């Protein structure tokens, strides 16, 4: 089903590479989240469409030959086992200063959030939505400046994104700056129960 928040007219950003994070293990779901069928298409497809809307080049972080297609390579993590390792994979491979990251398990990614992130990024290392439920580190913008500090942590076996956040300059986007409906847009599907509930909502 078409996502109304991804408009055809959204301009592509020359300095932005899209990174689909798809290297997780889907333990809570018990089966691969990326290819779950949701409202007429595989779940990952929804984030992919949004990334293509903003970025000329999009890649998959994590070894996913099953999701590859011409112009959409998947890259194995150099430091496997965490979303931070996936961010590193994307940032290392990107030829642009910035990456726009999206997870493969977000049913309603909202282009308006991306637009707001792009507006405020200047002078920061990352832009991350922040809500009363916590941060959304896998639907965010990261600058190449982050690479060194990510690598430092990953080399030491430190994988916690929140520890990483203490080392960089982040511009958070809080609810007053987020568009209406952000609660729905920032949902990730993690469990079979959640999937069933959201499918019901969508139908
Ligand atoms: N490249 C890469 N992506 C990851 C990795 N771990 C998680 N992700 C991605 O990060 C996003 C959020 O993942 P989570 O739900 O936190 O983790 P998960 O491993 O997919 O699921 P659980 O096993 O249930 O925790 C998803 O898009 C995952 O595909 C990883 O080690 N490498």
Automatic annotation (TrEMBL):
GO aspect biological process, one term: bis(molybdopterin guanine dinucleotide)molybdenum biosynthetic process
Keyword NADP included in the entry's annotation: no
Amino acids binding GTP: 21-23, 33, 77, 105
Gene3D superfamilies per record: Spore Coat Polysaccharide Biosynthesis Protein SpsA, Chain A
GO-annotated molecular function: GTP binding; metal ion binding; molybdenum cofactor guanylyltransferase activity
Record comment regarding domains: The N-terminal domain determines nucleotide recognition and specific binding, while the C-terminal domain determines the specific binding to the target protein.
Cofactor section: Mg(2+)
GTP-binding listed as a keyword: yes
E.C. code: 2.7.7.77
Principal cellular location given in the protein's record: cytoplasm
Subcellular location(s) of the protein: Cytoplasm
Positions that bind Mg(2+): 105
Catalytic reaction equation(s): Mo-molybdopterin + GTP + H(+) = Mo-molybdopterin guanine dinucleotide + diphosphate
Lineage top rank: taxon: Bacteria
Its job: Transfers a GMP moiety from GTP to Mo-molybdopterin (Mo-MPT) cofactor (Moco or molybdenum cofactor) to form Mo-molybdopterin guanine dinucleotide (Mo-MGD) cofactor.
Gene that encodes the chain: mobA
Keywords from the named record: Cytoplasm, GTP-binding, Magnesium, Metal-binding, Molybdenum cofactor biosynthesis, Nucleotide-binding, Nucleotidyltransferase, Transferase
Domain MobA-like NTP transferase: residue ranges: 18-163
Any one Gene Ontology cellular component term annotated for this protein: cytoplasm
Membership in a protein family: Belongs to the MobA family.
UniProt protein name: Probable molybdenum cofactor guanylyltransferase
């Amino acid at each position: 089903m078409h996502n109304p928040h991804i408009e055809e007219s959204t301009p592509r950003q020359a300095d932005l590479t899209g990174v689909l994070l798809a290297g997780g293990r889907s333990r809570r779901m018990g089966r691969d989240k990326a290819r779950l069928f949701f409202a007429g298409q595989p779940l990952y497809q929804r984030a992919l469409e949004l990334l293509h809307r903003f970025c000329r080049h999009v890649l998959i972080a994590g070894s996913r030959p099953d999701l590859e297609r011409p112009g959409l390579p998947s890259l194995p993590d150099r430091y496997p086992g965490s979303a931070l390792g996936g961010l590193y994979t994307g940032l290392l491979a990107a030829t642009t200063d910035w990456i726009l990251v999206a997870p493969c398990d977000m049913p309603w990614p909202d282009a308006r959030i991306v637009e707001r992130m792009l507006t405020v990024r200047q002078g920061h290392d990352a832009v991350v939505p922040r809500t009363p439920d916590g941060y959304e580190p896998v639907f965010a913008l990261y600058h190449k400046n982050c690479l060194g500090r990510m690598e430092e942590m990953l080399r030491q076996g430190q994988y916690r994104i929140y520890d990483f956040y203490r080392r960089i300059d982040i511009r958070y986007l809080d609810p007053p700056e987020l568009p209406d409906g952000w609660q729905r847009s920032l949902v990730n599907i993690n469990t079979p129960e959640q999937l069933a509930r959201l499918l019901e909502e969508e139908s």
